[in-house]
Structure formats: C-alpha cells, structure tokens
Amino acid sequence: MLRIAVRAVALTITLALAAPAVAADSVPPIVYKERTLANGLKVYSSIDKTTPNVTVQVWYGVGSKDDPVGRSGFAHLFEHMMFKATRDMPSETIDRMTEDVGGFNNASTYDDFTNYYEVVPANHLERLLWVEAQRLGSLVVDEAVFKSERDVVKEELRQSVLSQPYGRLMYLYLPQASYTTHPYKRPGIGSIEELDAATIDDVRAFHAAYYRPDNAALIVIGNFDEGQFNAWVDKYFGALKRPAAPIKRVTAIEPPRTQAGVFEGYGPNVPLPAVAMTWHAPAASSPDAAALTVLDAILSSGKSSRLYDSLVYEQQVAADVFSDASLPEQPGMVMVGAILAGGKTVPEGEKALLAQVARLRDAPPTEAELAEAKNELVTGKLRARETIDGRAFALGYALRTAGDAALANRELAQLQAVTTADVQRVAKKYLTDNGRMTIRYRPETERPAGQADATPKPPVVASVKYAGEIVTLAPAGQRVAPPPLGAPVSPVLPEPAEKTLANGLRVIVAKSSDLPLVTADLTVKTGAWADPDGLAGAMGMTAGMLTEGTKTRGAQEIASQTEALGASLEAGGGQESSSVTLNVMPEKLPAALAIMADVARNPAFKEEELERQRSQALDGLSVAYQQPGQLAGFAASQVVFSGTAFGHVAGGTPASLAKLTTADLAGLHAANFRPDNAILVLTGDITPAQGFALADKAFGDWKAPAGPAPTRVAVTPKAAPRAVAIDLPGTGQAAVTVTKAAISRAAPDYYPGIVANSVLGGGYSARLNQEIRIKRGLSYGANSRLSAQRTTGLFRAAAQTKNESAPEVLDLIVAELKRLSDTPAGADELKARKSVLVGGFGRELATTGGLADILGALALYDLPLAEIGAYTGKVDAVTPGEVQAFAKANLDPADASVIVAGDAKAFLEGLKARKPKLEVVPAAAIDFDRVDLKAAK
User: Fold this and answer.
1) What does the alpha-carbon distance between residue 478 and residue 367 come to, in Å, rounded to a whole number?
2) Which of 201, 230, 826, 875 has the fewest CB atoms found within 10 Å of its own CB?
3) What is the pTM of this model?
4) Domains of the chain, with CATH numbers?
C-alpha cells in the first residue's frame, strides 16, 4: 500500500467562542520499553492487558526516496515482495498466519520508511515474531513472484492514479514540481516504464542493501508477558547478522527556491480545475515542526478552518480545499490547494489561496483559533491511539521521521507550547512569495496545441548485477516449523444497557474503554427509502443540512463551537437511516451533546445554506462521474432495485438535487426526526448511569409530534438481471461489478451468508483475490460484500483492472460464484474464513465508533443487543453444507447483473461476446434518474 501525506479535505468556518485548549496530559502517554540488540535491531514494547490481541510491526529505514535512479516506485514494489516466500515459508503463508486466524496484515511505503504490521490474537505472538525474523533474514525473491507483483503494482498505479481525476495531481505533479534535486521529487508509486525496467537482480540487491537488522525497528504492543517476549526476540532476531557495509543514505540537498515558479499539469476526465501551492519546509525534527503543524490545522482542519471558511463557504470559489505540513525525515514541504467549484477559474483559486497565505503572514491567528487547532490536534492523537496498532504507529512514525520514538509522547506538549506569534513567525519564514511553486491542474482538453507533457521521461539505467546469496524455498521436509501457539486470551465483551425515555427515544449505553473518548450516535430510522418521487437525495440532503444551521446557531457557530471542544460532529444519511454522530473527550461531552441535540432537533434549513450544499454536492458528483468505480456503484441502485424505494441513488443526481427546496427538507425532518423514531447510542469512557442522565438532559424534552412514527417500507426487489457497460473514455481502468439483491439482516441464513461471502471475497486470502490478484496480477484487489439490511440486501463482487482485462476478470468472478455453489468449502478454508469474521468483529468492538455502529445497527434492524455475545458462536456453527446451500439459493451468477464502467473501446467486443444483450451507456450522457440510465434525447 502506498501512502501520500496529504490531508485530502478540510471543512469550514470562522471561530466564534473557543474552549480552553485540551491539556496535553489529557492524552495518556504510550508507556513503552526500548532496547537495542547487538546486531543493531531496535525493539520497542508496550503491554496492554485489556486487549486479547497483539500488534507486531517492523519499521525499516528505507522508503521511496531511496529508490535507485531509474527505478522510482521500487521501495513500494519491494513492499509487495515481502509478503511472499521465505526459506521456511511458502508464498501466502503470512496470510495464513494472520488473516486466517482472525487477524490482519498490511504494509505501507512512505518517502522515508516502509512498515509492515499485523494484529493477531495474543497467543500467536511468538509465531509472528518468527515470521518477521524470517522475512528479514531469509526472503525468497524469485522471477515468477516478482513479475506477478509487478503487475499488481501497475494495477494499483492505474487504480490510485490513472483512473482518479486528481490522481496525477496528488501523486505525480505535486512532488515533481516541488523539488528539483532531492529524490522526494519522484513519485513513490513509480511509473509503468520504470516498473517494467526493473529486474530480479535489482530486487535482490535492494533487499540486501536495506533490509538488515540495523535498519529495522520492531514494535510490539498488546497482551503478553515481558520476559517471555524478550526471550523470543533474542531467539528469533538475535542471530541475524549485521552486514559490514554501511547503509546507503540519501545525501542530496534541495537548494532553496529563490524565485516563484509555475507548473502546468493536465489530466483526462478532470471535471473541475485545481490549483495547489507548495513551499519548502523543515524536517520533522525541526523546532518549527509543532508551529507548522498548528498552522496547517488552522488552515484546513475541520469545518471552521480558514480555507473552507473563505474559499468554500463565503466566496464559493472552491468545491474542496486542502493543506498539509509534510515534514518528513529530510526537509519537506508545506502545501495549500483547492479543487475549484463549477464555473470558477484557476486565477480565482490562486487569488483566494494567496489571500489566506498573506493573512497568516500579516497577523497572528486569534487565541480562539489557536485553542481550537490544539484541541483538534490533541483529540486527533487520542483517536489514533484507540487501537494497539495506532499506538505502535505513533511510535514508529516518530522514530522514522524525527529519529526519536519518544517524540510520540513529547509532541503533545510541544503542540500546546505553540503561541500565536509562533504561527505567524513560521508563516513569514517559510510561506514566502519567492519560495512559492504553483501547480495548476486542468482537463487534458485545455492543453495548448503542441504543448508536451511536463513529466520527464524516466532515465534508462542498466540493472545491477547481484552476486550475493540467493535464498530459495527449502524442500518441504527440511523447513523449520513455526513455533507452537500459546494459550488463547479471552476477549472481554462490552455489556450494553438500555432504557427508553418518556418521549420514546431508545438510549443504549456501553462502557467500552478507559481511554478518554466517547462516541454518541443518533440514528433516525428513515433513510433514502423515504425520498419523494423524483427527489433522489432528499433525505440525504436533509440529514446533511443538520450541521448547517439551527434556529439559534449559524453554520459557522456550530462548526466553531464543536471544534473548539476538540469534537467531531457529522451528519448524513443512507438507504435505511439517517444519523448524527459525535466523538469527543468525556469532560467535553455535556457541552458537545447539547450542540448535537440542537443540530438534530432544530435545523433552520436556510435557503442560502441549501444553495451552498447543493452546489458542493453537484461539484462532488461531477468528480464522482469521472471515476469508474463510482459510476458502477451508482448504477447498481437502478439496475438491482428499480421499481422499489431503493431504486435511486441515495445521494441524489444532478437533476434531483436541483429540484430540492427548503420546504422539502423541513417537511421530511418534521415527519421523521422525532424521538420515537430514533436511537441514541453512547459508547466509550462512560457508564450507563452517566449516559442515561446526559441523554435525558439533552433529549428528554424532545417532544414527539401527534400520530404514530413513520412506517418503514419493506423493499422487495423484482428487477430482471441486466448487463450494462458505462463508457468513460480515457480512464485508466475498468470497474467490473457482478451484483444482485440479497437477504435481510434478520434472515435465518444470515450467518451462512456472511461466511459464504467471507470465503468468496471477504479479504486478501479469499477466493476472488486469490484468483484475480495473487495468481494473475490483474487487479490491486478483488472483493465481495454482502450488505444485509432490514428487509432486503445487496450482494456485490467487484474488481478494477486495466480496461482490456475486464472480460477476463468478469469470467473469473462468475467462475468463483459457480464454484462456491458447486463444491462445499473445505474444513480448513472454512475455519480460516470464519476466523476473519470473528477477528474483524472483535476489532470493531474495540473502538468507540465501531461499537456504536454495531449497537446502532442491531437496534435499527430490530435485533437483540445480546447478538454481540452470540456472534462468534453463530459464525462457528455454520457448516459447509449451509455455505453451499446459501450460494446456490442466493449467489447464482445467472441471476446477477453485470456492470462494467471504463474505457469501453478496450473491452466492448469481449463483453458483448459474453453478454449479447449488453446495454452501452456513454458516461457523458448518463442519467441515474432513469431505469435505462440514458439521458432523454
């Protein structure tokens, strides 16, 4: 997985009253121990007896900046190789030992480091230490796996960059324009040409150069015995040899920018122009890092940020705004940017951005802005540390960027020490006029005739000749067996309590953590199914407008007051329900809950606010309509559910959103937002008594209108299967989807259904990903989902691939659906896929937001809350015969619809051969309000 350090969106508004800044000591420090082995391996450990799990992470001091010349994307390509074979482990063993036991694994490549991380049940700790020592000391790099993973990385590039309207801007043009000399200028994901140029010798030499114990840090957090852990580390890592040669390090120094520059970039399928500005900035270890982090938060964090307030809310010149203080190991950059609103121009965007930069230089921020930024940053750190892997990530990131893991704890105090003068000082120091680089990004159709692409051709460089040891997989009888399992650690499940207030509001409270965080989630039992005819998106807009002003608070006040508390407050809607969700520290909960209640109960639905939200939604759709995966997803509602209350896009269409009035929204709110049609869930560091008291204070006087609560509709799908191709010329990939109506959440075969889906496409090791990604390298990932709702559900199997491979990927999906119903799953496979479900469920329960979602869904679907405790047993009880029977009854591909969105000229012939009744719809003329998806002529 490639990561890019850019905060993608910032939201709203000028400060009003501010709460005092959260004290740095409100976030418990990460208590850990550190030691270094004789071979140079750094070891960090932290014990947490409240979890049944453990995270094992290894952070290597090698990232994209270390890619060899002519091999950009190499560190990221190599990350993929590290999941394959070692001397004693055949390929995919790592997945068998993580995902198949109820855990997960992943990795990410940044400019400065590559990290590998797993979360598994605690009794698997010794095995995972053995695994990590194996892939550090005896990785197998063979030709077949190398070529397969190179193909996968190409698909990742197409999916993340070439098929996204702003992928080229974020991944390619920003670094290229911002640096002239330092290798930070190269795209971390690389290019097709450079990936194709790589050889097996290049890969082996890269591993030998950087994957060594003195360039690695092992971080383990969870439930374990310290003495036993240290003995295992010594046993498995202590024998690894430190190479004699020094580690290769980047010594390039980026020269100061002395004159402002402009970079002109273009891309296909870009519906709205964009502009970004970058400046050189210091490294993460700089004394200025904290002030720049606060500056970044003031610019774009939350709905009261300066960029949103000015560019999106007031001037309406931008659809989205973003900023980032990217402070890596070596000098980085500060960035501001905007995706412009419909009808707005790049010069307008530049002018608006420069005005905000000048404002920062010319005067310090207010004390209220400073306090709000600090509250958001500190609370954000707290949310990131809810999980054991989040805590380990904080230590690893501090180590690999600033050179000191302890900074993960010190940075909170450093942030609190920042003053308004510090923010102005760093703005003046770094955001200079001469130091600015402006990146303009427009549709390819606006490129001047004869102007070549500004992206340089990669240099042609000969491969290295590797003469070191080549590791091969040992014969089966000669492999070292993994260590035995320890005794399992039993999870402690939350015990929800509930009561119904006098007004009919159902309140559920579950204490789930001593970490100072609480989630409050108000679910209203009405969603897009209640949209009036012709007004798709009406209920979603009603919910979304809740935070845009009440009878006593304006949109700006809601944002500023909420964020001054360090809280996040969001509202939105889906097919089945609408919700308002709050996350905040416990001491701020009473004040934040009062704002939440006001938002839910007393929205103003002002005309000017509706116009702003409508404009933003339309701009968002113009971007979504240029993404193949989004187009396929939107089409599913009409293709599968036409003729029912689900037969439209829940978020609306350009035509339907244009018709909405404030009276429509007010009417939907009055009819549906009532206490006897709602559920309030409170989870986290809160007792039932505290939760019930706070709920009564905030919502107890909410009066239900006369008459019964709305009757929820029963959706009975009846549409015949269809095959649809959506033609989006120029896009880098095709999205292939096989979809059909499925079961309800209360169906007797729900548990066989979710186990069947887990076998088919519920994870990396599931059948679809095995066949499409792992064996053939045709996609970055293939998966399936079974979304069971109150009276019906949706099944969807999907993968994105290069356009010409779409028919082949469709064949593979169909073949796996048939195999699931033709042949019972084996005992080992079934056990593994059940573990995936149980492990994922347990990790979701471990966060306040995840637990709130689970409890809210059970209540919404009229299921007993005791299902939390019954889940594992019901999953384990599913038999192979039940999985096969479910697949036969519910997943027959002959009864499914096919939707393929992409550049149709590359796949149309092959698709028509498989689907003679294929409907072809140009993306430029698509109309999701119509059953045939075609705009009227």
Assistant:
1) 67
2) 826
3) 0.94
4) 33-243 (3.30.830.10), 261-387+398-446 (3.30.830.10), 497-699 (3.30.830.10), 723-925 (3.30.830.10)
